[in-house]
Every structure is written in structure tokens, then in C-alpha cells.
Amino acid sequence: MTFVFVSGDLALDFAGTLKWRRSAPEELLGTPADAGRWAVEAGVLTAPPAVSTPDLTALLVLREQVYGLTTAALAGRALPARDLRALNTAAAAVPPRVTLTAGGIRRVGDATAIGAAVAVAAAELLGGPEIAAVRECALEECTRLFVDRSRAGNRAWCGMEECGNRVKAAAYRARRGAVRAGAAGNDAAGDDAAGDDAAGDGAGGGGAAANGAAANGAAANGAAANGAAANGAAANGAGGGGAARGGEGGDSSVRGDVG
Q1: Chain centroid to CA 175: how far?
Q2: Which residue has the higher pLDDT, 242 or 203?
């Protein structure tokens, strides 16, 4: 299990060991050993103490009291009296003993000392001026609290490595999806325009073909008319020749009568 310390306050980091409270809660202190390891990584103790199952249960109860008191303060509600009494009781316990050695500072204590350190940090936060700078992470699913010490007072994420990167990745995917949708729409419009052009060309071609057919028909009709006229002229000529020959026969018969 990996712990992160991005809240800027020991008590809020401890409250953050239960993640995604509103959606799919993820418990980071699943075993007594996890609680001891968290205390070392948080700088509460130098070495992990022996933590029993009842010790872990008490620490988890304290964690929820810290979270409840802090969210009540952020919402402007009165601090729950029961949680307030429990916090003060935990803060009055023996804290870690600090000893200076040749190797540096050593912090020694048991599971109760872990709770005492957390409770004191929570009391100082809730009763001090920095409670006004406490924020909840802007990622909708995240419930981690942090102290906003940014110069502009506009810190949004508990941490960039997890929540900030999630938001940026989601925004990037949304932008790419919008670009692809726009490109697909443009392609579809282009296909429609091409179809309209093809239909227009087809209509024009059909008209030209029809005109050509009409012209060919007119030409054929003209040829037929000319042929009929020629045939009529030939027939007239044949009739004229026959009449001439008849006249000649008539002349012969006259000449016989005379002889």
C-alpha cells in the first residue's frame, strides 16, 4: 500500500487514508501493520510500533471523527459535541517522546501516541486560522481535504499525480472526441455534395442524350421525305414515256389506212 502526503497537515493526511468516500471507498489502513507503517512515513514515529487490532479500530474511529469535525467546520455547521470530546481525549494522551541522539531525532511511542499526534494536529487546525484555507479536492469522486497555501489561493487538486492528471486526461479525451466528431460530420457533408454533383451530371447527360436522339430522329425523317419525293419523280417520268409511245402507235394506224 502506498501512502501520499499531499494535504499539508498531519490530521488531514490521516483522514485521507480512506479514499473515495462518496463512491467506492478504498481503505489504506487495512491491517495493524499499515497503521504503524503510516506513522513512520508521516514522520510521527521513527520506527513502527506494535499495533493491535483494537488499536487499529480506535485509530480508525479517531480518523472519522477528525474528518467529521473538519467537514462540519467547512460547511459552517456547529462541531459535533461527541466528536469534539473524543478528539480532546485523544489529544490528552501521551504523545511520541522526542529524543536527540548522535544519529538525529528519534520519535518513540505506541499506537496511542499515534492517535495523540493526530488529535493535537486536528485541534490546532480546527482552532487556528488555516481552517479557512482548507479545501476539498475538485475532482468530483475525490474526498481528500488539504490546506491551500498557494499564493493565489486557487489550488484545485489534492495532488497532480493522481487527481490532477485524471482531470487533464479526461479533458484531453473530450477534446479529441469533439475533433473526431467534427471531422466525421465534414466528411459526411462532402459525400452528400459529391452525390448531388453526380446526380446533376447524370441529369445533364440524360438531357444531352435525349437531344441527340431527337436530332437523329429529325435527320432520319428528312431522309425518308427526300426518298419519297425522288420516287414520285421517277414514277412521273415513266408515265410520260408510255404516253409518247402510245402516240407513235396512233400515227402508224393512220398511215395504214392511207395506204
Answers
A1: 7
A2: 203
Distance between first and last Cα of the chain: 157
- Of 143, 5, 9, 13, residue with least CA distance to 71: 143
Q: How confident is the model at residue 161 (pLDDT cuts 50, 70, 90)?
A: confident
CA 237 to each of CA 172, 229, 232, 247: distance values in angstroms, whole numbers, following the listed order: 98, 13, 9, 16
**3-state SS class at 132:** helix
- Looking from the CA of 130 toward its CB, the CA atoms found within 13 Å total 16
**158: nearest Cα among 141, 145, 168:** 145
Q: What is the mean pLDDT of the segment spanning 226-240? A: 38
Torsion over CA of 109, 115, 116 and 118, rounded to 10 degrees?
120
Q: Give the Cα-Cα-Cα angle 95, 78, 139 (nearest 5 degrees).
A: 80
Predicted confidence at residue 184, as pLDDT, reads 66
- Please give the helix or strand (H or E) that residue 18 lies within, else none: strand 18-19
Residue 212 CA to residue 218 CA, distance in Å, equals: 10
Residue 225 reports pLDDT greater than 60: no
In the block, cell 486560522 appears at 129
Q: Work out the pLDDT band at 241, boundaries 50, 70, 90.
A: very low
The alpha helices in 42-80, defined as continuous H runs, are: 53-75
User: 12 CB contacts (<8 Å, ≥6 apart)?
Assistant: 66, 70, 125, 134, 144, 145, 146, 147
